[in-house]
């Protein structure tokens, strides 16, 4: 014997999101399905899209007799590009943290501009 549990949606508290209380609307379901289909379609056709370097720059370079050269610092190998972004984030975070008071408080002046006086 199966027990069926029924929930009176009018008695749900405000802790639940609206869609739990009222259910999904037809528009919401359509948008979710449309986004899923668009994601599948775009990932299937991703191989057909070439980057700007391949489709434009290399084409003009070959027309003018120039061939592609190796970059001075090749960031495509290993985790070098990830390390560069890590360093940039660390430097930016340090600078933002060091100058946080100057950036957020009134009356301290910012970057050489005249100070804003507290009233």
Task: Please give the structural blueprint.
Layout: H1 18-22, H2 26-44, H3 52-63, H4 80-98, H5 100-104
Descriptive account of the structure:
The chain is an all-alpha fold and 119 residues long. Among the domains are: 8-44, no CATH class; 75-103. Helix content is 50%, strand content 0%. The protein is flat.
| Average predicted confidence as pLDDT | 75
Mind telling me the C-alpha Rg?
A: 28 Å
Shape: flat
Number of strands: 0
Q: How far from one another are the termini?
A: 75 Å
> What's the tally of helices?
5
Low-confidence stretches: none
Q: Main β-sheet: number of strands, strand sense, barrel status? A: none
Helix content: 40-55%
Outline:
The chain is mostly helical and 119 residues long.
Protein traits:
mainly alpha, 119 residues, single chain
